[in-house]
Design brief:
82% of the residues lie in helices and 0% in strands. It has 131 residues and is mainly alpha-helical. Bound molecules: magnesium ion. Residues 41, 44, 84, 87 line the site of magnesium ion (MG). Keywords: Hydrolase. One of its GO terms (molecular function) is hydrolase activity.
C-alpha cells in the first residue's frame, strides 16, 4: 500500500491533481472538490453493482440458474468495477497525502483497534437483534 500510495502521489503531482496546500482558502476549496469527486467514484461502484444485479436478474429470467447467473454477471462487471475501485483509492490517497498519513499503518492500526474492541460492533449487534 505504501508503494502504490507513493506512486499515486507522484502521478498526481505530475498531473497537478494534488489537493492544494497553497493556503487555507485554496485548501478548503480543493478538499471539498476532491471529496465531491471521491463520492462520485464511490457512486460509480454502486452503479456497477446495480448493473451486475440487473444482469443477474435478466439472465435468471431467461432461465439461467440463479447461482450461475450471479457468477456470470459478476464476471461481466469485474473489470469496470476494478476501475472504479482504483479511482476511489486514488482519491483516498490524495487525502492521505494532504494529511501526511501512512495509509498502511493507519489500516493496521484500525484493524488492531477493531480486533481489540470490547463492545460488539454494529453488524454483530444487528445479528443479535434479528435472532
Ligand atoms: Mg470512475
Amino acid at each position: 500500500m505504501r508503494s502504490i500510495h507513493r506512486e499515486l502521489e507522484d502521478f498526481q503531482l505530475q498531473k497537478g491533481w494534488e489537493i492544494s496546500q497553497a493556503d487555507a482558502d485554496k485548501s478548503t476549496e480543493s478538499l471539498l472538490l476532491n471529496h465531491m469527486l471521491l463520492t462520485t467514484e464511490i457512486a460509480e461502484i454502486a452503479e456497477e453493482l446495480r448493473r451486475m444485479l440487473n444482469r443477474a436478474y435478466e439472465m435468471k429470467e431467461k432461465g439461467i440458474e440463479r447461482e450461475k447467473a450471479f457468477q456470470l454477471a459478476k464476471e461481466e462487471v469485474a473489470e469496470d468495477i476494478g476501475k472504479e475501485i482504483a479511482d476511489s483509492i486514488a482519491y483516498l490517497c490524495k487525502f492521505a497525502t494532504f494529511f501526511q498519513r501512512d495509509i498502511e499503518q493507519d489500516i493496521k492500526n484500525k484493524m488492531n483497534e477493531i480486533h481489540t474492541r470490547s463492545k460488539p460492533n454494529l453488524q454483530e449487534r444487528m445479528k443479535e437483534e434479528v435472532k
